[in-house]
Amino acid sequence: xxxxxxxxxxxxxxxxxxxxxxxxxxxxxxxxxxxxxxxxxxxxxxxxxxxxxxxxxxxxxxxxxxxxxxxxxxxxxxxxxxxxxxxxxxxxxxxxxxxxxxxxxxxxxxxxxxxxxxxxxxxxxxxxxxxxxxxxxxxxxxxxxxxxxxxxxxxxxxxxxxxxxxxxxxxxxxxxxxxxxxxxxxxxxxxxxxxxxxxxxxxxxxxxxxxxxxxxxxx
Length: 219
Prior knowledge:
- By secondary structure, the protein is α/β, with parallel strands linked by helices.
- 22% of the residues lie in helices and 21% in strands.
- It has 6 helices and 10 strands; from the N terminus they run αβαβαβαβββαβββαβ.
- It has helices at 4-11, 36-40, 57-66, 80-88, 160-164, 189-200; strands spanning 17-21, 47-52, 71-74, 92-99, 118-123, 149-152, 171-176, 181-183, 186-187, 212-214.
- An 8-stranded parallel barrel has the order 1-2-3-4-5-6-7-10.
- α5 links the parallel β6 (149-152) and β7 (171-176).
- The longest helix has 12 residues, at 189-200.
- The model has no long low-confidence stretch (mean pLDDT 90).
C-alpha cells in the first residue's frame, strides 16, 4: 500500500495483511506518502508487513518500531543469521525465495527454518519481486511443507481455480498485488473485492477461508 485513502478502502475488506515497501528503488516505496499515524489507524486485526531488500538489521528494526509493523518480509540476500537477529528483537520474519524455471533447491531453506515464521515463494525475474508472472507451482511438491508459506507471483482472477488445486500444500496466504493495481501502489478496490468473492464467496464465516495478503508483486 502507498496511499492513505486507498489503504483505508482496502482495509474495509478485512484483509489479513497489508504490506508496505521500504525499498527506496521501488515504485511502491511508501515513506514519502504514508506516515506512521496512517498505519496506526488501521484495525488491529490487520497485520502490517514491512518489505525490505538487503537492509541492515538496525534499519529494519528502526522502521518496524516507527511504523509499528508486525512482520518483516526480507526480499534480498539476507542470511539466516539476520533473520535470527530480527526474531530475537520480537518481530516475525517472512523470508522470500524466488523460483525460476529450473528445479529450485529447497535445501537452502533449512538454515532459515528455525528463525522464520513463514516463507514466501514468488517468481524469479528482472526485479526483486514476483514480476507479475507465475512460476511452475508444481515445483512446490518438492517442498517438505514444514514451514507455512505465502504464495506470490502472477496471482489473478483467472487462476483462482488453479489455486484451489493447491489446497494440500501448507499455504498460509496468497500475496496479490500488480494484477490488482491501477498504478504502482494504488489498488483497484473492485478487483480486490471480486477476488475475495471468488475465493471465499460472500460468507466470511466459512471455516475454510484462506487468508489473503495485499503487498507486493514486483518492486
